[in-house]
Structure formats: C-alpha cells, structure tokens
Amino acid sequence: MFLSKVTLKPGPKLFELLGEKSGSNGYAAHQLLWDLFPNDGEKKRDFLFHKDEPQELPSFIVVSKDAPVETEALRVQSKPYAPQLSVGQKLTFSLTANPVVGRKTEGKKNSIKHDVWMDAKKTAQENGLEGSALVSACETASKEWLIRQGERCGFQ
Predict the structure, then answer these.
(1) Who's near 50: CB < 8 A, 6+ residues apart?
(2) Which of 9, 32, 137, 155 could form a disulfide with 150 if both were Cys (CB 3.0 to 4.6 A apart)?
(3) Would you tell me how many other CB atoms lie within 10 Å of the CB of residue 15?
(4) Burial level of 36, CB count in 10 A (0-12/13-18/19+)?
(5) Which residues pair with 77 in a beta bridge?
(6) 19 half-sphere exposure, CB direction, 13 A CA radius
(7) Rounded to the nearest 5°, which phi and psi values hold at 113?
(8) What is the pLDDT of residues 44-63, one digit of tens each?
(9) Alpha-carbon distance 104 to 84, whole Å?
(10) Three-state SS string across the chain, please?
(11) What's the first-to-final CA gap in the chain, in angstroms?
C-alpha cells in the first residue's frame, strides 16, 4: 500500500475543482483523484482519500493499493505504507460516505441503488412515523449500514 500527499498544480483542472460549481463538490475531487490510477476501465476503486484544506490550496491524503502516477493536474509525494495493526487496537477516524442500498426492481436485471437515509425515510413514512421517530429510524438505518460494512470489511 501507499500513503500519498496529493496537491493541485496550477492549470485548468485547478479552476474546475475550485470553481463556483464544484468548489465544495467531493465528487469532482474524487474524479480528479481517479486519474492517479490509470486502468483499462475494469479496475475497482482501491483507494481512500481525505481532503485537507490548508490556508492556501486544498490537498489530499490518499491511501491506495497501487502507487499513484502524477498527472498534469496533480503533484504526488508517495511512500510505502504498511501499518502494523494488532488485534484489539483502536483507531479513530473521520468518515464521509455515500451509503446506498440495492433494491431489486421487477423487470430489471440489476438492483437499483438508493440512498440509505432516503430509503429509510420513505419506509418510516409508509409505516406512519413522523418527527423524531422518523429521524431516529433514518439514523438507525445509517448506523446499521456502517456496521454491515465493518462486518464485510473487517472493522467495527
């Protein structure tokens, strides 16, 4: 694995990322970081990133399976990363996620993805929940999604 600091180089991509329409858009940053990992279109995402916002330009801390390749828009400083974790060790982290749930739809080959919060909200409303009970149902669904991800990926 690799731990990398990625900074933006001056140029058109910088203005695209920092422009009015995408300045706070995490998706634009994610798409830009994908360029660090050339592939044939079959590769799955195998990197995580954190947007760091110093006083000047934003930069990113990236943990990835493969070494990132510097691009026209991004400068990369990388080093091998092999954390030595032990059973029972506790780590803290900040998480931004887009939790989705797949729902089978009649006539469709693949399930359709739905936002976990909105899916839970719809179900709760159909069951007559309102106010704080509705919010609680949505929070519970989001927490359960994270617990399932942990069970699948080996964290809790």
Answers:
(1) 60, 61, 94
(2) 155
(3) 11
(4) buried
(5) 5
(6) 10
(7) -85, 135
(8) 778 888 888 766 677 889 99
(9) 40
(10) CEEEEEEECCCHHHHHHHCCCCCCCHHHHHHHHHCCCCCCCCCCCCEEEEEECCCCCCEEEEEECCCCCCCCCEEEEEEECCCCCCCCCCCCCCCCCCCEEEECCCCCCCCEEEEHHHHHHHHHHHCCCCHHHHHHHHHHHHHHHHHHHHHHHCCC
(11) 21
CA nearest neighbour of 110 among 96, 119, 118, 100: 100
Residue 25 and residue 139: Cα distance in Å, rounded? Answer: 24
94-110: pLDDT as tens digits: 777 888 888 888 888 88
150: number of Cβ within 10 Å? 11
80: nearest Cα among 104, 94, 63, 96: 63
Confidence (pTM):
0.62
Residues 69-81 have pLDDT tens digits of: 998 888 999 999 9
